[in-house]
Amino acid sequence: MDASPTMPKSKAEHVAQRLLDKIITAGLAPGSSFGTEAELLTQFDVSRPTLRESLRILESQGVLELRPGPRGGIMVRKPSTDILAHGLSVYLRLHDVPFIAVLKAREVIEPALASEAAINGTEEDFDELEASIRRMKAIDKDQTAFIEENRIFHSIIARASGNKVLETFWQTISILATGEHHGVRYSFGNQQHVIEAHQGILDACRARDNKVAAAKMEAHVTELEHLVRKRYQNLLTQPTRVVGRQGRRIA
């Protein structure tokens, strides 16, 4: 089967690629100035409308921040996972990928992260996990706080894995897979199960038992699917929700 033809790049897209190459080769750190519009017009020998469109492309990718005003300018940024999650959610929504597929992806990724965290994590990582569990125990009925602390625990596991690619995949998927954007809520009993599961995962990591850590994480993340099947079964086949650039549901 022939591959779909690739759309030719516009001039602005070509210039955006050249601008990105300059950022990378110059090793510009986040927060660095990328120069003025006048300087870039001279360096790249393009029209003002083309340059501005190129800058907006990189801004939409999270590479640049265009700050207005006398103290503003063109500043270098690092793309956030919120931007990746937004792009992925749009792609999945337009391809009618159901929420259950996102849950299944999480169930594949997270046990691998827990296994790697048990091997590569530091005692400082494990202390952070312990602190997260303590904070979670102190949360009463605040669903937003509970969901956020749950995400913090899993983000520490992802970071402790030492695998930046898997960590990035998880950070992107986790924004879509919490169930929050689909209206899923945790009862008090559900919250206690989550806390117990987190403690078991931490204990396995401290013991450097990667197989147990992976097994406990697998059991833990499948609990969300079981919860959805039991109480929100209609969500399983619903298309993935689109989230905004700050991780909030927008459609």
Walkthrough of the structure:
The chain has 251 residues and is mostly helical. It has 2 domains: 66 residues, Winged helix-like DNA-binding domain superfamily/Winged helix DNA-binding domain (Arc Repressor Mutant, subunit A, Orthogonal Bundle); 155 residues, GntR ligand-binding domain-like (Four Helix Bundle (Hemerythrin (Met), subunit A)). 65% of the residues lie in helices and 3% in strands. A two-stranded antiparallel sheet has the order 1-2. A hairpin with a 5-residue loop joins strand 1 and strand 2. The two termini are 34 Å apart. The C terminus is likely disordered. Keywords: DNA-binding, Transcription, Transcription regulation. This is GntR family transcriptional regulator. InterPro entries: GntR_C, TF_FadR/GntR_C, Tscrpt_reg_HTH_GntR, WH-like_DNA-bd_sf, WH_DNA-bd_sf. Pfam families: FCD, GntR. GO terms for molecular function: DNA binding; DNA-binding transcription factor activity.
